[in-house]
What we know:
Bound molecules: fe (ii) ion
Helix content: 25-40%
CATH architecture: 4-Layer Sandwich
Strand content: 15-25%
Amino acid sequence: MGRSGAAARRRARGPGRRRRRGDGAWSATGALLPSADRSAREAPIVRLGHISDLHIADRARYPRNGFTARDCERHSPRIARKLLAALREEKVDHLLVTGDLTFSGEPSEFVRAAELLAPFAREGKLTVLPGNHDVWTHEAAGTFRFLRALGPDGKGMRKLHAVYPLRVELSPEVVLVALDSARYGEPPQESPGWVGSEQLAQARELAREANQAGQAVVLALHHHLVIPPERVPSDAKLARMPLYDADKVVRLCAEVPVAAVLHGHRHAAFRVEIPGPARPTPVICAGSGSRVHDEPARRPRALIHSLDKGGLRATDTLVAGSE
Length: 323
Ligand SMILES: [Fe+2]
Ligand SMILES: [Fe+2]
């Protein structure tokens, strides 16, 4: 991608250095991972933007689907818009959105989410996958609203066909494999996610092929694999909506080298490690890119993952300031 120089400069600033951005509402905080070594800086780097759980709402349509109009105020489309603008300013090579683009899967919410992401979609630099809120109602799931309006590239599909696992070549050296873990269930607030054996088998094959070709593999899905020990109040709700077959995804990562697992669902950012065949696999939650919250772990953010064939070199964070 020829961005090694820029990436090196960015990391050279070191973790913890804060920068003023635009109107001063933004600051880039330090990397979640240690800075890359010299050899990594000399390799071609892919910069993958990662944002999640935008929960774009059409407030006028509520109360509906178990939510009040006031519930919509937990998320701000204005914050999401500013974070997306910051990612464009950073000139990321590609953007990944790990689900829950809408508040409860209403048609107008998909339209608004698509509008928000259109600049990335137009350039062919966007991969989206669904979250549980995108299949919140039987109607949204049954009419494949997510795929028709958005998925998997932000442009939507005219002719529907099975999409996930989706292989996206981010560079000759880095491959993204996007999974669909969103499943409609009644009641939706207690329905677990599910990848399924067929999708898992295909993902395993894609990861194997990529490894054999010397490519690093990034796995992406909506649901968390594990919840780290520190708890926030929203975890109590998420515990009712886990990933039913998380153990099978963890096993895949233990058997086939995966550079990183990227997800959302939990509206707090964190990074944990699970076992890999040669070294631990980082599992990174982006939190929410629109949540109105001042608690440090829950402040709205976007991530930029720097990757090459050696794996994940660094993750930088763009944190939204208070409104
Ligand atoms: Fe969410
Ligand atoms: Fe979710």
